[in-house]
Amino acid sequence: MSVDGSQRSEVETLFSRRRDWSADNVVGFMMKQAVDHPECISLAAGLVDPETLPVEVTRRAAERMLGDESLARASLQYGTTEGSQRLRDLLLEYLARLEGVSVDDLGIDRDQLVLSTGSQQMLSLLCEAILDPGDICLIADPTYYVMLGTVTGLGARAVVVEADEGGLCLESLEAVLLSIEAAGELSRVKMIYVVSDFDNPRSVSLADDRRGGLVDLVAGYADRQRILLVEDAAYRELYYDGRPRPSVWGHDPAGDTVALVQTFSKCYSPGLRVGFGVLPRRLIEPVLDLKGNEDFGSTSFSQHLLATVLEDGQFAEHTGRLRQAYAAKRDALVRGADEHLGDVDGVEWLVPDGGLYVWMTVPERVDTGLGGSLFRRAVEVEQVMYVPGDLCYIGTNGLKPRNQLRLSFGVETPERLAEGLARLARAIRAEL
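Structure (tokenized):
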């Protein structure tokens, strides 16, 4: 179907352009594969470990919240579009701890914090507020494939910026911007998207010495084109080696270049669906206008429940246990790779120091894509599932690498991760 609608049938004209641009949803397909093959060990699902979900902590917080009549009524009532003042005040303290500064030194107030239904809603709202059809969002390749769908679902274009083991390459970003400017399209560049910590799919973080430079590079274009730098920090709390680092947003003292997006889905509970954005002041009203049209405000119950958890001092203890559990699962998956694939030429993987994923590369003659024989063999014969790496690429001139895999250690136990890697190794060896 043509994007301009010239070949749309009479029935198809019932649907909007946005429906056309959002077709072929990859997440839906992968979820269907999991449902259709429940016997598979899933190295694909980016879900959190059900055994680590904070049932007891949440139960105690819910009992305290519902035992307080004032809190109970507030949690069961409509909230505001921007979200609970109580939680936003607590998030200022939470964010200050992550940044390693005082609340006063953050340089913001709660009005710049907007709560959302997970981080994905905030990413979607920012894209809606900024991008028109034909506009450009610069994204490191490979990247979070749901964000690709969000950008293209608005009719905008995702344009490749090179990335390495230190994340997005500033030299490549500068070269791409200069090329676009030379082509007379700089006015179309509205957004740059970066996952700063333990990205999906590779669990790679933006190097510390690139963070300030990235902000400076983007801010340097402000006199001829305002570009929003969107920092997705969904995995920020999931560090296993070392300590949390200051965000990209923390290198933006003027507060008008970066929008920071975070979520409690990965580090506490995806079922609560609480995320937030720290927004430049010029973006607050547009985002709230769009959000008000969607939901009048995200769920009050979840916001007050999370606020109670933070007040009770249980959150930090939970995330400490969570990091220990995921580090052990990462180690089990990597040990399995060493044991079963360590002697195979051309098979390599990145060992992450945070996040939920291991990124693997196999020889180019092995097609890891959904239509490739490795995926079929893995699912149907060995009963193990992975995410094909090409789904995470924008690609250049229509070309995407088809010899990479994203392996998640989020859901399965260490024992099943080890068995899953053994099964995957058998499939890879058979293909070779």
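The chain has two domains: 37-53+318-431, 55-313. The chain has a mean pLDDT of 92.
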